[in-house]
Amino acid sequence: MEPRFVADAMLGRLAKWLRILGYDTRYDPRWTDPQLVRLARAEDRVLLTRDLELARRRGVRVLLIESEQLDAQLEHLHRTLGLWAVAPLSRCPVCNEPLEEVPKDHAWGLVPPYVFCTQEWFRLCPACNRFYWRGTHHARITTLVARWERQWQHEPYPPENPA
Questions:
Q1: pLDDT tens digits, residue range 80-138?
Q2: How far apart are the first and last CA of the chain?
Q3: Which of 19, 55, 104, 136 has the greatest number of C-beta atoms within 10 Å?
């Protein structure tokens, strides 16, 4: 079973990219430290934080993320937890829900006309009703994920310091 995460307020960009990589990642910048700890315990999630004091909490799996750089953060998760892209572009990067493939006609009037005419593949977030398609953003994301995975092939695993 893949790890599930909850990220603190300082890791919004990482949370979004974990979702893009296919990981169930809860994030709300309004959550307090006690709320984050309770959620991590209740849902058996790894708590990701840049807060040293929060990282010292007992009774919860916590991983301290030291870098501010996304590439280094993801590399750290690869080295410590064996993170790979498990199901790229399968979750809503905004609200974390699994995306559902929908027939093209479901997108009629809900996506820009040019997109509707040029795309055949659509996914919909059932929670926030956002549509996703294979536009230029898809190509950029796919290229970036492939670059990370090439880099990670040369990184050590099993974990140096398991959470």
A1: 998 888 999 999 999 999 999 999 999 999 999 999 999 999 999 999 999 999 988 88
A2: 15
A3: 19
Give the amino acid at 85.
A
Maximum distance among all Cα pairs of the chain, rounded to whole angstroms = 54
Q: How far apart are CA 6 and CA 19, in angstroms?
A: 11
> At residue 64, what are phi and psi to the nearest 5 degrees?
-80, 125
Which residues have C-beta within 8 Å of that of residue 93, sequence separation ≥ 6? 16, 17, 19, 20
Q: How far apart are CA 65 and CA 80, in angstroms?
A: 11
Structure tokens at 41: 């315990």
C-alpha neighbours within 13 Å on the C-beta side of residue 135: 12
pTM score: 0.88
**Contact present, 89 and 132 (Cβ < 8 Å):** yes
Q: Which pLDDT score is estimated for 154?
A: 65
Asked whether the beta carbons of 92 and 99 are under 8 A apart, the reply is yes
